[in-house]
């Protein structure tokens, strides 16, 4: 290699100088990549990318520092870029997994809630007529015991009895939904 290639003056890369640079610095560049990654295949791939980029940019690239310094900096940058991108990919993956879990849980909860509503409606509809009427007026229409008693021409005590009976019946028949 000429002194221009190893010194600090600028030079252009041609096929001969590229071969010399590759043979002289491949191992050093590999060592930098491997030391930071601990993965032989990934380090080899990065070294190939660095030298491929060097060759592809040979016509517009002017190295004004030592070739070794340039290649070592390129290797460090490539490793940094890989680690940064890996962290970003991991964060995206975590977010996707979290969103899927939330979506699955939300969907499961929605299904469970709808099942509970359907089951509750069926159980309410199976209550004795007067008990069902009193319970619906209380819970669905929001009427007070006094208003229900007045509308149905029964005592407030009878309203309380029917509501208590309905709640007791529903609780005993909804045990699978207990928390």
UniProtKB/TrEMBL annotation:
Transmembrane segments: none
UniProt name for this protein: RNA polymerase sigma-70 factor
Signal peptide residues on this chain, from the entry's feature table: none
Annotated keywords: Sigma factor, Transcription, Transcription regulation
Organism: Dyadobacter psychrotolerans
UniProt superkingdom: Bacteria
One MF term in the entry's GO annotations: sigma factor activity
Coiled-coil regions listed in the entry: none
Residues covered by the RNA polymerase sigma factor 70 region 4 type domain: 118-167
One Pfam family it belongs to: Sigma70_r4_2
GO annotation (BP), single: DNA-templated transcription initiation
Family, per entry: Belongs to the sigma-70 factor family. ECF subfamily.
